[in-house]
Write a structure and sequence with these properties.
Layout lengths: L1 H9 L2 H23 L2 E14 L1 H8 L1 E4 L5 E9 H4 L8 E5 L7 E6 L1 E3 L10 E5 L3 E20 L7 E3 L3 E3 L2 E7 H4 L4 E6 L8 E5 L3 E3 L5 E2 L5 E2 L4 E5 L1 E14 L9 E5 L3 E6 L1 H4 L5 E7 L6 E7 L6 E3 L5 E8 L3 E7 L2 E4 L5 E5 L4 E7 L1 H9 L5 E7 L7 E5 L2 E6 L5 E2 L5 E7 L1
Parallel strand pairs: 1-4, 8-12, 18-21, 26-29
Antiparallel strand pairs: 1-3, 2-8, 3-7, 4-6, 5-8, 8-11, 9-18, 10-17, 11-16, 12-14, 13-17, 14-15, 18-20, 19-24, 20-23, 22-24, 25-28, 27-33, 28-32, 29-31, 30-33
Length: 421
């Protein structure tokens, strides 16, 4: 009979409903009691936050600097229900700076802020690493500082590194007055290995340095540029021979002219497109009719635009010698002029002119022995005549008709009386 009653009792839904209700009541009582239990939570590294900085700067031209700490460690107490799930990232140590109107040093108490699901009035601070935060309020200013740039890489063999070019050459820095007044210059560098062409790089990682070369923290500073544009000029290097150009004449040609010089080649640099097309450097011309048999000259080395003379040699000393020829003096009486403007007349004052001719011995002998077939004459060019009176002109051409490979060397002058026609 007892077993039957027990079986009916356990199979009764009402019985189990009562049991469930009693169990839930017990759990609620336990949980409620536990959640209302007072606990302590350690929060290490709570971030210190300054509020009102934007208004402080925009309205008063002030900023906060030199905070005594960036984080604080606190131990708080409260019910488990209120603070049991708090993490250090949920809490901030807030300092309100919106009320400050002048620069100076301040030391103030911070306020802990919590998420919206935490009743801040039911939380108390048991212990903290610091109770106040000290900081500076300083005026915002703007300074212009010079830029320095450097290339710290390497250039490939056969290439030349030129002078760095960068812009801007100065930048504006805005920030706390007590920070920016220590800035001496901006430094930017580029490092590329085995560079074989000109490159332009934007250096965004520039740093601020003081006069002793110490780096200044850029945090909180503003710049009028985001990067320094640095151009690293790289040129092709090439060694090329010197080639002397000649004005041949009076029997002298390249074949019978000997040229010796103290410089035979120079090293040049420039863009590959230009340098690849240069195989010689032309120097001259050397006028072979300006001297008799030998002369010494100093000639400039001139390069086209875009080509750099790496050797630094700007002139070359040469000795020029004409071989196999002789010089002899002859007297010319056949003198005339050409090109005189129609409004003028010319009367010859110089009736005889001694000239030096150069040529092979055989050719010079033929001039002396065949006076009937050889015609020596001097012709003055008077096309530049613009005035009257006695005029001396060096624009004189000597002709040797009837003999080849012979000519006059040097310059000659003739005198005329010029009158109006």
């Amino acid at each position: 009979m007892t077993k039957k009653r027990a079986s009916k009792l356990f199979n009764n839904n009402i019985f189990w409903a009562i049991i469930s209700l009693l169990a839930a009541l017990c759990i609620w009582v336990y949980t409620t009691g536990t959640q209302q239990e007072e606990i302590r939570v350690e929060l290490n590294g709570v971030e210190v936050v300054f509020t009102g900085e934007e208004a402080l700067q925009s309205q008063r031209g002030l900023v906060v600097t030199d905070a005594s700490t960036q984080t604080v460690d606190v131990t708080i107490s409260g019910t488990r229900l209120n603070i049991g799930r708090l993490d250090v990232s949920d809490v901030q140590a807030v300092v309100d700076v919106s009320r400050y109107t002048s620069a100076g040093s301040y030391n103030v108490t911070y306020t802990l802020t919590y998420p919206s699901n935490v009743d801040a009035n039911a939380v108390s601070i048991v212990q903290s690493s610091v109770s106040t935060i000290s900081f500076q309020v300083t005026r915002v200013d703007t300074v212009t500082v010079p830029v320095e740039a450097a290339f710290t890489g390497s250039v490939a063999e056969g290439y030349l590194l030129g002078d760095l070019e960068y812009e801007p050459t100065s930048i504006q820095v805005s920030g706390p007055q007590n920070v920016i007044e220590n800035i001496d210059h901006v430094y930017a560098e580029v490092s590329i290995d085995e560079l074989n062409e000109t490159r332009t790089v934007d250096a965004t990682n520039f740093v601020l340095l003081d006069a002793e070369g110490n780096e200044i923290d850029k945090t909180g500073l503003e710049f009028n540029v985001e990067a320094i544009s640095i151009t690293i000029p790289v040129s092709v290097i090439k060694t090329v021979p010197i080639y002397f150009t000649l004005n041949e004449g009076a029997g002298a040609t390249r074949a019978n002219t000997i040229i010796t010089s103290d410089v035979t080649e120079i090293t040049i640099a420039g863009d590959a497109e230009i340098i690849d097309g240069i195989n010689t450097i032309e120097v001259g011309p050397i006028d072979l009719t300006s001297f008799e048999l030998t002369t010494e000259l100093t000639l400039p080395i001139l390069l086209t635009n875009g080509v750099e003379n790496v050797s630094g040699i700007e002139e070359v000393n040469v000795t020029v010698e004409v071989s196999g020829l002789e010089v002899r003096d002859f007297t010319i009486t056949n003198i005339s002029y050409t090109g005189l403007p129609e409004e003028y007349t010319a009367e010859l004052v110089t009736h005889s002119l001694t000239v030096t001719l150069r040529g092979t011995p055989e050719a010079l002998d033929s001039i002396s022995s065949n006076t009937s077939s050889v015609n020596l004459r001097a012709v003055a060019n008077l096309s530049n005549t613009t005035a009257t009176g006695t005029m001396d002109t060096s624009s004189v051409q000597i002709y040797v008709d009837g003999v080849t490979d012979v000519g006059a060397v040097g310059t000659y002058r003739l005198t005329f009386n010029i009158a109006r026609a």
